[in-house]
Design a protein that fits this description.
3-stranded antiparallel beta sheet, 3 strands, 7 helices, 189 residues
C-alpha cells in the first residue's frame, strides 16, 4: 500500500483534543486581567486543536487495484468527537470573520518569540486591520470547509473528510502567507 500524506495517529489523542473543545468554538481569552481576545491563543486552542482532530484521525491509502481506502473514526464516540471538533472549527472560522473589539495578536503579559520570517504582533494586527476584507474572506473559506466536514460527520463520509483534511492545509497556509509571514510568499519560500 502506498501511504498518503496523512498518517492515522491514535484516535485517543484526537478524542482528548475534541473533549477539550466542549462547548464549541467559544471565544478563548487570555488569563490577563483585561481578558482580551488573543488571536494567537484562539488559533492554537480552537482552530489548530480542531483541525488536528481531523488531520490525525483521517487517512487515505491506495490499495490493491488502485482502490482508494479511507480510514478514520469508526465508533460512535469517535464520530461524536470528530463532529464536535468540526463544529468548533466552523464556529471558530465564523468568529474570525469579525474579530471582537480590543482584540490582540498576542497576550502582552506573556513573552513570545517571533520566529524568523514571521511578522511582529503589531505588524500582524496592522495588516489585518488594513486588509480586513481579505482576512474575513480567509476566515469564511475556513468556516465553509469546516461546515463541509461537519456535514460529512453526519453521513460518516470518510472520503469527504479526507478531501477537507487535504484542503485545510492550503486554506491555513494561504492565510498565513498573507497575514503571518507574507515575506515568505514574496520570496517564493
Amino acid at each position: 500500500m502506498l501511504n498518503a500524506r496523512h498518517t492515522k495517529l491514535s484516535l485517543a489523542g484526537s478524542l482528548l483534543v475534541a473533549a477539550a473543545l466542549t462547548g464549541g468554538g467559544a471565544i478563548m481569552t487570555s488569563h490577563a486581567a483585561d481578558s482580551k481576545f488573543i488571536l494567537a491563543d484562539f488559533m492554537n486552542n480552537v482552530v489548530m486543536s480542531s483541525a488536528d482532530v481531523l488531520w490525525q484521525s483521517v487517512s487515505f491509502d491506495i490499495g490493491p487495484d488502485d482502490k482508494e481506502i479511507y480510514s478514520g473514526p469508526s465508533t460512535d464516540a469517535e464520530w461524536d468527537a470528530m463532529r464536535k471538533a468540526m463544529q468548533a472549527l466552523a464556529d471558530g472560522g465564523a468568529q474570525l470573520q469579525k474579530l471582537p473589539a480590543g482584540w490582540l495578536v498576542q497576550d502582552p503579559a506573556l513573552k513570545y518569540e517571533t520566529p524568523p520570517g514571521d511578522l511582529e504582533p503589531d505588524a500582524v494586527a496592522a495588516l489585518i486591520g488594513k486588509e480586513a476584507a481579505a482576512w474575513s474572506a480567509h476566515a469564511e473559506v475556513l468556516r465553509a470547509a469546516a461546515a463541509q466536514a461537519l456535514k460529512a460527520t453526519e453521513t460518516r463520509d470518510l472520503k469527504t473528510l479526507s478531501d477537507v483534511s487535504d484542503s485545510l492545509d492550503q486554506i491555513c497556509e494561504s492565510c498565513h502567507l498573507q497575514f503571518w509571514y507574507p515575506g515568505q510568499a514574496q520570496a517564493g519560500i
